[in-house]
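ok so i was messing around last nite and threw this chain in just to see what happens. nothing serious, just curious
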Amino acid sequence: MGEIDDIMGLCDQVRELSYAIHLYHGNGYLEKVYENALVHRLRKAGFRIKQQQPITVYDEDGTVIGEYFADVIINDVLLIELKGEYHEH
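result:
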């Protein structure tokens, strides 16, 4: 169970940092601003981060069916896909 507990603990830390970013920055910025804020705070907290990391997607027989760009990968174990909504006023 140790590995699952580690992932859950990592998820808790990411949630806490994300909420702190929300409290500080509020709503209204483009998604990239929140992504950069999360990456900045995760790195400050000592995590290994990959941002906009390309990932090749394979079908079950090994055929390449596309490429995906992960918003954030933390410690090579947790992929974060950010979703934001921007409204012009």
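not much to say yet. The chain is about 45% helix and 25% strand.
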